[in-house]
Amino acid sequence: MAADLLFGKKPPSSAGTTAAVQRYQQQNVTNNNTSAAQGCGSWQGLYPTIRERNSVMFNNEMMADVHFVVGPPGGTQRVPGHKYVLAVGSSVFHAMFYGELAEDQEEIRIPDVEPPSFLAMLKYIYCDEIDLCADTVLATLYAAKKYIVPHLARACVNFLETSLSAKNACVLLSQSCLFEEPDLTQRCWEVIDAQAELALRSEGFCDIDAQTLESILLRETLNAKEMVVFEAALSWAEAECQRRELPPTIDNKRLVLDKAIYLIRIPTMALEDFANGAAQSGVLTLNETNDIFLWYTASNKPELQFCSKPRKGLAPQRCHRFQSCAYRSNQWRYRGRCDSIQFAVDKRIFIAGFGLYGSSCGSAEYSAKIELKRQGVAMAQRLIKYFSDGSSSTFPVWFDYPVQIEPDTFYTASVVLDGNELSYFGQEGMTEVQCGKVTFQFQCSSDSTNGTGVQGGQIPELIFYA
What we know:
Elements: H1 2-6, H2 14-27, H3 29-38, H4 50-57, E1 66-70, E2 77-81, H5 83-89, H6 91-98, E3 107-110, H7 115-127, H8 137-146, H9 150-162, H10 169-178, H11 182-194, H12 196-200, H13 210-217, H14 226-243, H15 250-257, H16 271-276, H17 286-297, E4 317-320, E5 322-326, E6 338-345, E7 349-356, E8 364-374, E9 377-388, E10 395-405, E11 411-418, E12 425-429, E13 432-435, E14 438-444, E15 461-465
Parallel strand pairs: 1-3
Antiparallel strand pairs: 1-2, 4-15, 5-12, 6-11, 6-14, 7-10, 7-15, 8-9, 8-11, 13-14
InterPro entries: BACK (IPR011705), BTB/POZ_dom (IPR000210), PHR (IPR012983), PHR_sf (IPR038648), SKP1/BTB/POZ_sf (IPR011333)
Protein name: BTB/POZ domain-containing protein 3
Main location: cytoplasm
């Protein structure tokens, strides 16, 4: 049961577990062979520090005074241990072996921890080495929490925060609440809010528990169309039916959703989305469907169990990198050339789009190919049209989804514009701009072939969520 909760009811495959175990066994072949070969020889003299001598004992039968049978039935591994070393590394092991209620057990069964994760914890205790990978880090965090190894637990949380993305944010949200890690929980919410549609459409969303589902559906700051929220809830319901061994019928989906269905703000959908989607899904009762149609169209609106107030979403912020703008006759020509700038930030943000200049001689329509790259690899691009009213204002263009930007790494923002050649351009550019709690740094890009740089040119604004 604990293992099911840990892995979001989707434990790793036995093949993956076996491979990880084999890696740990291979790492200790040298230690074991050294011990066996030297027998009664002074092997201790080969290692100058206590850490190195303890490392020889890691996963080694030599002088072992306790053994652990680790893993669920059918997937166990017998692991040797040394009580003194374990007690020095964990207060739980200290109580187990030397406390008032200590029992003299030669073999201890641990069915709720996976062998690779238990070995990762022991490697830290014996060798002072942290060896984490994406496949086992959650299980290692569970082991570190269970045996109160706080520095290893913090390393696991840091690893998870670094690898956090829209694909795994919902699952990690569920696990962070289980492990009582408020910082990780907050990071998960930041990703889910900013990249809500990607997170809701991810495979991991279907693996969350019912309580986490409700907390997401309640979220006021989700940046998602309500139709996407509705479709995600139905996908979750189908997966939940499978977990409960129920046929995934419409009635059963409604059954497993229970009161969570009323957390979806169906009346805030566009009428077309409701009519072609939610109204024909079968999940709503006939009375609910009829009342919502009346709510859309009638002047005397019925009372609904569904919230009719749209979510606030996140307010986009704008980083403006120029202190002024100007225009001159024939000053700025495009002709298919690229305007580009590099930027870096000091904390994780999500780039939603750019603010671009427009025509300086009356209204005009522009076609823009916008792109965001990291180390030469495109992360997002879009071909979009926008209308300029002839003012010196900036006009927003948006990516399909906000793009996660990591701190202390340079990214390249680019645009290829096609439209009226007489346009505004930026002047008095800044190399560093403070926007709220986020600091942006700018530098010239080698991709820029049309004159844009730090001091002047195009791409005056980066639109982002933080």
